[in-house]
Amino acid sequence: MIQSMTGTLRRVLVRPPGTDFSRWREYRWRAEPDAKRIAEEHEGLREALADAGAEVVVAATAADRNPDAVYVFDPAFVTEAGAILMRPGKELRRSEVEALRADFVAAGIPIAAELTEPALAEGGDAFWLDEQTLVVGLGYRTNEAGATQLGAALPGVQVITVDLPHYHGREHCMHMLTLISPLDVDLALVYLPLLPVRLVEVLEERGIGLVEVPDEEFATIGCNVLALGARKALALDGNPETRRRMEAAGVDVRVYQGEELSRKGEGGPTCLTLPLLRG
């Protein structure tokens, strides 16, 4: 099973950071990462995933000179039929699609479809509400053509689109999964002030409870967590109130260190991982 956000994580793809971060400003990172520390943090992330019982597949393709390449969730979307190669709205990231194609071949994952112009879509703008329902956020990184092509590649799947907020503008990374992280089939972590109204209504209709991220921990990536299984989550360390609220809702929370890996590039554990198998 893979068309789930909260099934037990069995197999996951990651890409270690490179060593050349000279283009960090071009990719709009907050600061230049320290090569030694970011490598250590990524090793800690891999250890946390393995300790949770997942097989960790390390991508062989290089990430040098593209710091965003460490965020493997965006250039592809894995389904029961295989991988859908996306077409990132951030043009600098489009070369990552071919790198992931090679990684999928090595991992034995078939390519089910590939998005083409004028489609734009990034993995961070899509999540499974259930195995047959996909929610897609429309914004500066994902457009209607992208959502339409995703729907065509997923026969039998209902695609629900919602509009993402402008927030800080075109250059700021505002993905759907910046605002919501499913924790179980009936529970989600959310930043409610920016959540699309239509999505709030869908969650209410389905009886999905909400754990709210406080304002002061939204900017520190408090809302982006990775479900390791039902009510089991991996979160970036340093958001104590968000962790307390998840634990109060019955969620087993594990943390990893990510000052270089996550905060400087604004990508949480969901961004850093590409689940290949859940069940």
Strand and helix map with partners:
Blueprint: E1 9-14, H1 35-51, E2 55-58, E3 76-79, E4 82-85, H2 95-107, E5 111-114, E6 126-130, E7 133-138, H3 144-153, E8 158-163, E9 180-184, E10 187-190, H4 197-205, E11 209-212, H5 215-218, E12 226-229, E13 232-236, H6 240-248, E14 252-256, H7 259-263, E15 274-278
Parallel strand pairs: 1-2, 4-5, 7-8, 10-11, 13-14
Antiparallel strand pairs: 1-15, 3-4, 6-7, 9-10, 12-13
Keywords:
279 residues, L-arginine/glycine Amidinotransferase, Chain A, 7 helices, single chain, alpha/beta, 3-stranded mixed sheet
Structure report:
The protein has 7 helices and 15 strands. It has 279 residues and is an alpha/beta fold. The longest helix has 17 residues.
> Judging from the principal axes of the Cα atoms, what is the shape?
globular
Q: What count of structural domains?
A: 1
Q: Assembly state here? A: single chain
* SSE string: EHEEEHEEEHEEEHEHEEHEHE
Mean pLDDT: 96
CATH superfamily: L-arginine/glycine Amidinotransferase, Chain A
* Major beta-sheet overview: 3 strands, mixed
Total count of strands: 15
Examine the secondary-structure arrangement and name the CATH architecture: 5-stranded Propeller
> Portion of residues in helices?
10-25%
Give me the Rg, rounded. 17 Å
Helical run tally: 7
CATH topology value? L-arginine/glycine Amidinotransferase, Chain A
